Amino acid sequence: xxxxxxxxxxxxxxxxxxxxxxxxxxxxxxxxxxxxxxxxxxxxxxxxxxxxxxxxxxxxxxxxxxxxxxxxxxxxxxxxxxxxxxxxxxxxxxxxxxxxxxxxxxxxxxxxxxxxxxxxxxxxxxxxxxxxxxxxxxxxxxxxxxxxxxxxxxxxxxxxxxxxxxxxxxxxxxxxxxxxxxxxxxxxxxxxxxxxxxxxxxxxxxxxxxxxxxxxxxxxxxxxxxxxxxxxxxxxxxxxxxxxxxxxxxxxxxxxxxxxxxxxxxxxxxxxx
Amino acid sequence: xxxxxxxxxxxxxxxxxxxxxxxxxxxxxxxxxxxxxxxxxxxxxxxxxxxxxxxxxxxxxxxxxxxxxxxxxxxxxxxxxxxxxxxxxxxxxxxxxxxxxxxxxxxxxxxxxxxxxxxxxxxxxxxxxxxxxxxxxxxxxxxxxxxxxxxxxxxxxxxxxxxxxxxxxxxxxxxxxxxxxxxxxxxxxxxxxxxxxxxxxxxxxxxxxxxxxxxxxxxxxxxxxxxxxxxxxxxxxxxxxxxxxxxxxxxxxxxxxxxxxxxxxxxxxxxxxxxxxxxxxxxxxxxxxxxxxxxxxxxxxxxxxxxxxxxxxxxxxxxxxxxxxxxxxxxxxxxxxxxxxxxxxxxxxxxxxxxxxxxxxxxxxxxxxxxxxxxxxxxxxxxxxxxxxxxxxxxxxxxxxxxxxxxxxxxxxxxxxxxxxxxxxxxxxxxxxxxxxxxxxxxxxxxxxxxxxxxxxxxxxxxxxxxxxxxxxxxxxxxxxxxxxxxxxxxxxxxxxxxxxxxxxxxxxxxxxxxxxxxxxxxxxxxxxxxxxxxxxxxxx
Lengths: 273, 541
Hints:
The complex is a heterodimer of chains A (273) and B (541). Chain A has 273 residues and is an alpha/beta fold. Chain A is built from ten helices and eleven strands. In chain A, the strands form two sheets. In chain A, strands 1, 2, 3, 4, 6, 7, 8, 9 and 11 form a nine-stranded mixed beta sheet that branches. In chain A, α2 (34-47) links the parallel β1 (24-29) and β2 (52-57). In chain A, α2 (34-47) runs antiparallel to α10. Chain A is globular. Chain A starts with a helix and ends in a 9-residue tail after the last helix. Chain B has 541 residues and is mainly alpha-helical. In chain B, strands 1-4 form a two-stranded antiparallel ribbon. In chain B, α2 (49-59) packs across α3, α13 crosses α15 (391-415) and α14 packs across α15. The chains are: A alpha/beta (273), B mainly alpha (541). At the A-B interface, α1, α2, β2, α7 and α10 of A face α12 and α19 of B.
């Protein structure tokens, strides 16, 4: 036993000494932007193999907090920084700069067996405030509405809350889930469900509704016709030094490969090659 | 009578105990067996040629020559698919056809200049060829068969014109003739519909067979290969063959799933037989072979755990667990010794014990937040380090989390050492410290190891405490304890919430969880064996 401990301690101590100077990049934040960051890292790795990049995906709010604490180099966020986050950052001498890397549409989705195909923003708001609680009121079937929302720390929730709910509170019976895949699987297994998820998660198993008569597609989102759309951000402390690693990462979406990755991940690129 | 009742209650008690044991085993079997069985499918499965290509490219593994042969054979079958789609696409894709006509017209213009034809002759040929081009382009756009046939025969009248003999305009005639023969089988009004259906079909084929080799290589590794396993291939084949639609029978009724053969969308066209062709030749196209992918345990993975294994996660989990144990072991034993040696149960001891018991009941996320605030944000900068999460801070947080378990188990073990041992040691003239180290500790070791076993299982599986203190979803393998790390527990969480990729590779999700179970199992077995050895030594064997 003693020998074992001695061996372990030596091994750990030795590995600790290997701490050599290397270029590292810490990325933290949104679960929505995380997969894009992952994919960027993969592509980056082939160009700069000596790089050490880590990605954490816990939520936009955590990304903002980490940037404020100087715990990460880049915060991935699916919403803009809030006033108090900005204030806290500036107080600590961190000056957040936003880089928009892609666009995302938040789709209101239902079970494919639901005959309703179109809602207005006001109707969606009434569903989430509890004023409408049966699909019959919307010209659908006689079926109670099961309302699915993302958790309140998610950027998708913030976007939805801001663009659809305005200042109104969500009803008490709303079911909160903490990720896009979870929302997706709740909707696809519940015939009466309604929820909101990123456009990349729309597939044959859930149906995206037209909102105010506009179908969520790449074209309607980028042109601003579709009402519930948002940019996805990378936040850095100040504008990164030109030519630095952070700079290269934050401008990677402007390259042709960057655009291909953004599109492969189901988001809408800001560039058109 | 009384005896009889006692007999009955005894029997009932025995039956109940047996039943509860059976239930426990059944629950374990229900939870663990499917988990391990599905996890095993990450290692043992029916692999395709795409899997072997991926292994060769990403991990330089496998027989290159054999793979080349397989590839050549499977290409023979694949090419037919690509060719059929390509030729069908030409007929429905009016833009490409129009472009082709445009290029031919421009080439003809250059040809005339090269041949040095000038003046009225040049003007005449030029305008005539422009007319032909415009006519053809109108034909490609139209969906009226009569209009098309009339215009094509108009164009073909010039085929034998001397002026166009052996020039690039010949290409226009070939284009027109091909188009005329092709459209006989195509319903032109459905051209747009065909285009949309074909796009979907091509998407599924790309997922099944990998990207078309004539196109540029995709940027992401996950898009570079087709279906790597038989189960995925069959799922995709199903999607390829059957079209799922939702239709409403009558208003007021829920929509129903209607499944029709996808081939119906292309009825009468050259695409229709392709579906049967793929179904019948799937074996030749994908070259299934049983695969034993034990390297799952030693491979790194691509983002979202799409390809590859769980080596960095295993390494991180073991590292974290060992490091946490190194902190817990001495602190736990010393605290336990203090609590056990103090005979008098005064107020301070009572408070300490209460604190430890309370600590054992604190939710793990609270430890996580404490670790972030104390170790990462306060202690690390205090010792001059960057306030970034790493293995060290995560291990310390886990150590705090598991300390109560360790203290309580060790205290019990130390207390259960017979007083006579201590008295004998003291009687021989040994001091308190010597007695503790050389008599009490060895005798209590089996009990302390029980505490370690419990702690190891807890530490290896915890996610919440390391969420903010050292775990990452994606990053390099840690090189020192000052790097953050991937772990099996956080990896399982990430794979479930992070990305939509997880739904595409369920075997990897199960594989990771099964690995975690097996790892904890192995660590436990190791500790149990060690405990048995020490016990035997104590008994004097």
